[in-house]
Write a structure and sequence with these properties.
Trna Endonuclease, Chain: A, domain 1, Arc Repressor Mutant, subunit A, 14 strands, 21% strand, globular
């Protein structure tokens, strides 16, 4: 989102001159926030505000209130963090207002309760879904392309060799990659191939706003019979194995939804809380074993799965892991 659009809207509705400029201290924020937002400073009626600007509308899983609280801890005490987005679904708008979250939707609404402002015009709603993210299959195939020896041009089925998705799913994935501006399709005879116009690091960076955590849910469980040791380590366990971060008290592993169903039939017992011998299981949207290496989930999925963790130590370790990616 460009600053001048926000600035023009504020000047129109507030009938005063404002100046927006980048926030120089954004680098001190956790990695997951820097990936999700742009940050800018502006003074509104002598109140210093920090605009927390979403590049694209965040999905329902995002905790905007918590994000602003983390930003506030890293900003000067008298600064007011304000969420800025291009559109809000009605239920999102109601939730933010109920939580007292200051927000701006340029051209639509300005809600700044600390300044006594609630200016509502018309509401540009967005669909109540997460269609702005890549599908799990598309994300899995993209990560396959990024992690294997790099090829600028590749047949989509080469990326599908381990996953075995249907031709329809692979075709949809190629369309999603093209729509996201991450790759282009071109014809080789009667077949469609993928072409990446950038190097893998640039594709990875460009994909950030399209990625979602592979973790559908996490549960505690204990083995009633034989332990499942071939599932890759995930979460903090995987991060600790590749950094100086201390491991958690309980191992964390990942498996697909399909394998989770089989595991329960073979005696894996759910727990309401951790206990000796327990494992924290991540149930993934795609099969983590197809991208795993040396008993660990792949680094790209791991980094994305940890973006919402507010522990600075975790984010620092994730940044170090990203810096070691082989591209």
């Amino acid at each position: 989102m460009e600053y001048h659009g926000i600035q023009r809207y504020l000047q129109e509705v507030l009938a005063t001159s404002v100046r927006i400029r980048p926030w120089d201290d954004a680098q001190q924020l956790p990695f997951y926030l820097r990936n999700a937002y742009d940050f800018a400073e502006v003074a509104l009626f002598d109140t210093p505000c920090l605009l927390v600007i979403a590049d694209r509308p965040l999905d329902i899983e995002a905790d905007i209130r918590r994000h602003l609280d983390v930003v506030a801890k890293h900003a000067p005490q008298d600064v007011l963090p304000v969420y800025v987005t291009t559109a809000l679904a009605s239920y999102e708008r109601k939730r933010l207002i109920a939580q007292g979250v200051p927000f701006i939707v340029p051209g639509n609404q300005l809600f700044l309760p600390p300044l006594g402002m609630d200016l509502r015009e018309y509401f540009r709603e967005r669909p109540d879904n997460t269609s702005n993210a890549l599908s799990p299959a598309t994300q899995a195939l993209l990560f396959t392309a990024l992690l294997r020896p790099w090829k600028d041009e590749i047949h989509p089925e080469r990326l599908n060799e381990r996953f075995g998705y249907t031709p329809m799913t692979v075709s949809r994935a190629t369309r999603e990659l093209q729509a996201a501006g991450l790759a282009r399709t071109f014809a080789v005879g009667r077949e469609k191939w993928l072409r990446f116009d950038q190097r893998p690091e640039a594709v990875w960076q460009r994909a950030q706003s399209w990625l979602r955590s592979p973790v559908r849910r996490s549960v505690w469980a204990v083995h009633a019979v034989d332990p499942i040791n071939d599932a890759p380590l995930a979460g903090l366990s995987a991060l600790a194995a590749q950094s100086a971060l201390a491991d958690s008290a309980y191992p964390e592993r990942a498996m697909s939804s399909e394998r989770w169903k089989h595991a329960q039939h073979k005696g894996l017992l759910l727990l309401h809380a951790p206990e000796p011998g327990a494992t924290r299981w991540q149930i993934w949207r795609y099969d983590p074993s197809h991208l795993a290496d040396h008993g660990l989930v792949d680094p790209l999925s791991l980094i994305v799965s940890l973006r919402e963790d507010t522990d600075d130590r975790v984010q620092q370790a994730a940044e170090q892991l990203e810096a070691k990616l082989p591209w």
